[in-house]
Amino acid sequence: MKNARFLSALLLVGTALPLPVLANGTPTAAPSAPSAMKVLSRIDLAQADQPSAKSTDDVRGASQTKTTSPQPVGAFPTNEMSGMPVIGLDGGADAIKKDVAALQQTLTELQQLQLQTKQAHWNASGTLYYPLHLLLQEHYEGLSKYADTIAERLLAVGSSADGRANTIVKTSGVPEIPGGFLDDAQILVWFTNAYKRVGEEVNAAIKATEQVDPTTSNLLQEVEHGIAKYQWQMRAQLQRTKTDPNTGWDLNDNKPVDLAPQAPSKP
User: Fold this and answer.
1) CB-CB contact of 164 with 106 (8 Å)
2) DSSP annotation string for 29-42
3) Rounded distance, CA 199 to CA 192, Å?
4) DSSP β-bridge partners for residue 159
5) Average pLDDT rounded to a whole number, residues 139-147
6) Nearby residues of 84 by Cβ (< 8 Å), 6 or more positions away
7) Which of 70, 85, 171, 234 has the fewest other C-beta atoms within 10 Å?
8) What percentage of the chain reaches a pLDDT higher than 90?
């Protein structure tokens, strides 16, 4: 191994590099080449065995910077109300309570979906890798804008917004997407179901706020419109038609995907 590194160093040092040329055509002086031993020492340093962290705690403990807060962490979620003047809502305390609860839960679910779209965007695999890779990025950016709008509405009504990771973990109703590489059929099924669930949650939030805060209700309608569009874009790729049962077998190891058809509603 040492001989191989020494040979690599000699080849590296002996390689002729083109010299930079001045505007008048005169070559500049070549920088002095590092000695073979210096190059070897750099290679040895780069290849030196570093102590590897055996657990998450080891990684956290590797930093000397303390991240504890002097203030208590609080509950998940925590929505602190401002003592400064804000535009009031008809209905008083009960109205603001409904409003904040609807907005905060929507924010949490949007953030959860954001994280999962990026996870799937990175790890998408299979025949539909490329179109899903692009579509998931589009969804990620759209969800990010919706989340920002909802968080800003929380601040506008006088509440803090809680976007902490533990709030997402502890209060989101959307399950975690599996880790590792994600098959294209798996992605289509997961997001079809996840968007359906979040869309239904947002729809409930619309109804809860339409009387106490029409502005919030209207914003939530925009979010529900976007989620419904994203859900359609996922399920359309497995949509059954009269000429094609489209069970997803061609994407799923010759087995139908786990996406039970829903009975069509009457017009």
Assistant:
1) no
2) PPPPPPPHHHHHHH
3) 11
4) 81
5) 98
6) 158
7) 70
8) 63
Q: For residue 179, what are its two tokens? A: 């880790």
The residue assigned the tokens 């920088």 is 31
Owner of token pair 């805060």: 213
CA distances from 133 to 28, 30, 139, 230 (A): 47, 46, 10, 14
Reported as a single tens digit per residue, the pLDDT across 68-81 is: 767 788 899 999 99
Within a 10 A sphere around the Cβ of 251, how many other Cβ atoms?
20
Over the stretch 27-84, which tens digit does the pLDDT of each residue have? 545 445 555 455 444 444 444 444 554 666 676 677 777 767 677 888 999 999 999 9
Q: How far apart are CA 224 and CA 219, in angstroms?
A: 9
- DSSP code per residue over 173-239: -SPPPPSS-EEHHHHHHHHHHHHHHHHHHHHHHHHHHTTT-HHHHHHHHHHHHHHHHHHHHHHGGG-
CA–CA gap between residue 207 and residue 203 (Å, rounded): 7
Longest dimension (CA), the chain: 83
Looking at beta carbons, which pairs linking 114-123 to residues 24 or more positions away fall under 8 Å? 114/140, 114/143, 114/144, 114/147, 115/168, 116/174, 116/176, 116/177, 116/190, 116/191, 116/194, 117/143, 117/191, 119/177, 119/182, 120/177, 120/182, 120/187, 120/190, 120/191, 123/180, 123/181, 123/182
Task: Give the bridge partners for 21, in sequence order.
Answer: 27
DSSP 3-state assignment of 115?
A: helix
